[in-house]
Amino acid sequence: MYRAWLSCRRLFGDVSIDSFLDAHWQDKNSVIRFQQLEELLCGVVTPATLSEMGRGISKVGMSLRITPYILSLIDWYEVETDPIRRQFLPMHFELEGDHPCLSVDSLSERETSPVPGLVHRYPDKVLFLITSVCPVYCQYCTRSYAVGQSTSALQKDHVASAHHWDNAISYIRAHTEIEDVVISGGDVARVKPAVLARLGNALLEIDHVRRIRLATKSLCVEPMKILNDDSWFRAIVGLVEQGRRLFKDVCLHTHFNHPNEVTEMVEAAMKRLHNEGVHVRNQAVLLRGVNDNAETLIELIRDLGRNNIHPYYVYTCDMVLGTEHFRVPLGTAQSLEKQVRGTTAGFNTPLFVVDAPGGGGKRDVHSEEFQNTQFGIHGFRAPAIDRMRIYFYLDPLRSLAEEVRDVWRGTAGQQIISRFERSVRAPGRTNNQGLFNVA
């Protein structure tokens, strides 16, 4: 706690410990413009490093927002390789050209949205997007089409709005197959306590809604939100208690990617949540240069377990525009899962998944049914979503031979997936290595 505060003082001057631990101070002093970052980091990093950040920020689809707390966790002496900096402050040298099949909405959420702000993909589950803002903006955000402010690279489609809530609740009430509601956005930490309580209770009053998940990264990036924003904390606890009275499950879903994020303040925040009976699950994203090695993932999982945070998922990075430098080949995810499994109890081991591009949902990384490693193509089926469709995850271009990259980038690249899909429908075809002739 004190180490983070002292690091923060290096950037923000004579800030008191009480101010640093105040969630409202953290929000008020979050960096949202590059000019603010320049002022804070002048004399801390080199002008060349600042220039790299400025050029990187100008090229990406996510706007800038980062709390003083997260800034205090970055190792500014090793800034180019620091795993926390890499997630929130892009540098131009690390960016890569997009794979031609990357898209702004790679999971096709807007195509499975029956009313604004609601995604209904799985039969008994909906994703309720109630806000488009977060305490921080991750540069690999799967919902960059809607979250944060518009940038020079991307105009946002703000589908998450309180104006849509009534229609979304009416839809949930009318569809009795829906048992599970994920309340996300954005981040529920940016919703006023009274509003969050009213919305959560409205959902709990629907008989067929059995489970509610509240999605927030605040535990990782602003733990003081849990430690001293009592009205917001009590709104969360109130929903958990009301769910328990109704024999329903209300829990928190959070998002840690690296063991450096699991600090003493996180432990203190988790003790407060745990004492109130709040169950917390973690969903990590596998990110190149952040956690794409077994040692880091094992340490992260153990640190989470020691703090009563259940390691739930490790996702491959979604195929979102501007994220090519974060993505790793599917084979890397498969190898890491094998190395991680068995290092701790099975219930404390996350499931490594691909959120299948196009809306196939979460698929175990080992469950691919078709592949062509020459072109980095991996096919998944999701019978509960669409029995006939094949969903493709594509390896990053850097992992492919140069001549194959050229094919992807050329006009022929647009034909590859359709040719592959036709081939895998052939009886008995399960492995299409060498199916395509580069020449």
Describe this structure in words.
This protein is an alpha/beta fold and 439 residues long. It has three domains: 93 residues, no CATH class; 253 residues, Aldolase class I (TIM Barrel, Alpha-Beta Barrel); 66 residues, no CATH class. The protein is built from 17 helices and twelve strands. The strands form two sheets. The chain has a nine-stranded mixed β-sheet with strand order 1-2-3-4-5-6-7-8-9. A three-stranded antiparallel β-sheet has the order 10-11-12, with helices on one face. A hairpin with a 4-residue loop joins β10 and β11. α4 runs antiparallel to α5 and α9 runs parallel beside α12. The longest helix is centred in the middle third of the chain and has 16 residues. The relative contact order is 0.10. The C terminus is likely disordered.
